[in-house]
Amino acid sequence: MSEQVVETIMQGEPFTLTDDELELDKLPLTRTPVAVQAVAWVRYGGVPLRLPVEVVAWTERAVAIRWKTATGSVHKAWVWASAVSTDRAQTT
Questions:
Q1: pLDDT in the model for residue 55
Q2: Does residue 68 surpass a pLDDT of 90?
Q3: Which of 13, 58, 60, 2 has the alpha carbon at shortest distance from 32?
Q4: CB under 8 Å, gap of 24 or more: what pairs does 18-22 form?
Q5: Domain at 3-85: CATH architecture
């Protein structure tokens, strides 16, 4: 996928998990003082993108991530833990 197409897709809002899915009232939350570099599958509408991200918090099921778009905007989302990897070898 070309950078221009990715930039266009990322002009929208990323998909994030709902409060019901996160269960933050039931599951322990860990916040890190220093963000952890990773890659994650993030959805914009129906389009999945594998992006370099920073992990800022997590539960046993979900991970809070943030990343910058090509225009410098910071996007944030909660994704399922299985969508995140510390293997930065391949991104979209």
A1: 98
A2: yes
A3: 58
A4: 21/62, 21/78, 22/59, 22/61, 22/62, 22/78
A5: Roll (2.30)
Q: Which residues contact 41 (CB under 8 A, 6 or more apart)?
A: 48, 49, 50, 79, 83, 84
Amino acid code (one letter) for 64: A
CA 52 from centre of chain = 9
pTM: 0.87
Residue 34: phi, psi to the nearest 5?
Answer: -125, 120
Closest CA relative to residue 58, chosen from 84, 39, 87: 84
Residue 71, sorted as left (phi over 0), alpha (psi -120 to 50) or beta, turns out to be: alpha
Q: Side-chain half-sphere of 2: how many Cα atoms within 13 Å?
A: 3
What integer is the mean pLDDT of 4-23?
88
